Amino acid sequence: MADRPFDAQSIIQLPRLNADETHTAVQQLTAEAAAVPGLPGGISDALAEMKASDARLLAAMASKGRAEAKAAIDPNRARAADKFSDCAWGGTRSWLEGFEELPEAYQPDPQAVRTLKTRLFGDGSGFLAQPFKEQWAECDRRLLVIAEEGLAPLFTKLGGDGFLRALKDSHAEYGAALHVTAAAPWVAPDLDVRGPMQECQYAIRFYATQVVASIKPKDPATRERADRLLRPLIEWKSEVTPAPAATPI
After folding, report:
1. Can you name the residues that pair with 219 across neighbouring β-strands?
2. What percent of the chain has pLDDT over 90?
C-alpha cells in the first residue's frame, strides 16, 4: 500500500471553494486575525504568506475578468448593429415598394424592381424580427444572392447604390458585433486562475496548521484562540451551486 502524504495539504481539509470563495475565506481569516493580539510568530508568518497568495489570486481573477469582458459580445454594439441592419433592409424594401406605387411608365426599370423585390423580399421581411444571429444569417444569404446572381447593377440602374452600400456596411458591422465574422479574443480555460487559487488554498491550509500547532493541551486560552482564528472555516457554508443531475435519455 502506498504511503499517504502527511503534510498541510492532507492534514487540513478545506470546504469546497471556488476562486471567489477562496478570496473571501482569506479576507475573513485575516479579519479574525486582526482582532487577536499577540499572534505567535509561526501564525503571523503563515498569515502574511496567505495574504500574499490571495493578492496573487486576486490579480489573476482581475486579469481573467478583463479578458472575458473583451471576449463577450457588447450588447450595446449588438443592438446598434441590429438597428442598422433593420434600417438598411427595411429601407431597401420601402424604396422598392415606392417604385411599385408608380405606374410602370414612371419607373426607371420595372423589371429590375420586380427582380430585386422578388429575390430579396420574396418571403417578406419577417427575418428582421428574428434573433440577432439568425437575422445575420438571413441577411448573409440575401447578400450572397446579390453577388451570385449579379444583381448589383440593378441597384445602380435604379439609382440605389446607397442602399446596396448600406446593406453591405450594416452586414459587416453586424457580423463583427456578434463575433461571427471577427473572432472574439481568446480566453484561456480556467487554468490561469486555478493555479493561483490552488496556491492560495495551500496557504490557507498551512495557516490552519500553524494555528492548530499553537494549541497547548493544558492552556485553554490557546484552544480558544485557535477556534476564533479558524472560525470562518469552521462555520463556512459554501455557496457553490452543485451541478444539475444528468437527465436520462
Report:
1. 216
2. 72
Contact 138, 163 (CB under 8 A): no
CA distances, 226 to each of 65, 81, 176, 229 (Å)? 35, 59, 56, 5
Cα(107)–Cα(145) distance, integer angstroms? 23
User: How far are the Cα atoms of 1, 7, 13, 186, 205 from residue 4, in angstroms, in the given order?
Assistant: 9, 10, 15, 40, 17
First CA to last CA distance, the chain = 40
| Secondary structure E strands in the chain | none
Q: Where are the beta strands (DSSP E) in 1-147?
A: none
Q: Please provide residue 149's backbone torsions phi and psi, each rounded to the nearest 5 degrees.
A: -95, 5
Q: Are 53 and 193 in contact (CB under 8 A)?
A: no
**What are the tens digits of pLDDT across the range 93-121?**
999 999 999 999 999 999 999 999 999 99
User: How is the chain split into domains, by residue range?
Assistant: 17-34+46-71+191-234, 75-177
Which of these, 67, 157, 145, 71, lies nearest to 112 by C-alpha position? 157
Burial class (CB in 10 A: 0-12, 13-18, 19+), 111: exposed
Amino acid sitting at position 90: G
